[in-house]
Amino acid sequence: MKILLSITLIIIAMNVTAQEINKKIHDQVHNKDILINACSRERLVTFPEFKEMYDPLYAAYTPDAATMIELKKLVKKEKIKIVFGTWCGDSKVNVPNFFKILDALQFKEKNVELIAVDGNKKAENGIIDGLEIKMVPTFIIYDQKGKELGRIIEGPKTTLEGDLLAIFKKKS
């Protein structure tokens, strides 16, 4: 009986903490449907409002070749968390361009976490608590041990690949 009760409590706890991936809600701030919480890249690039800009911007973006050569030498097994809004103009521009860079680097998609926020820059169940997200998109780069190496907030200071290189150079 104790084992059955323990299993039941574990299942309940898992259901409470489990995040629904690719969840769509109606955002009151922007009065439109948005994605919220953890998202897959596949869902992001098919979300109607995001897709309209994603495809042409991804296709048109050409990362700087010299910067990419330097980046390839430095990228190992880091992890990247991208906090963005499907409603946000800066996210619609910078996320496709950032993915173009990651694809050119052959960065493992399993090492990229996408988190969508609402118009108040919040997600559910505390999944971005402690990240101090003030503007989106925010690209957070972590080393293999989970230590934050740096961020690109809202837009790059130089170029996305240039800012990424500066973060990776600080690490080495």
From TrEMBL:
Among Pfam families, the record links this protein to: Thioredoxin_9
Keyword Signal present in the record's keywords: the answer is yes
Alphabetically list the UniProt keywords.
Answer: Signal
* PROSITE patterns in the cross-refs: THIOREDOXIN_2
- Going by the entry's taxonomy, the superkingdom of the source organism is recorded as Bacteria
Q: Which residues form the Thioredoxin domain?
A: 7-172
Residues of the signal sequence? 1-18
- What is the name of the protein in this document? Thioredoxin
| Origin species | Pedobacter petrophilus
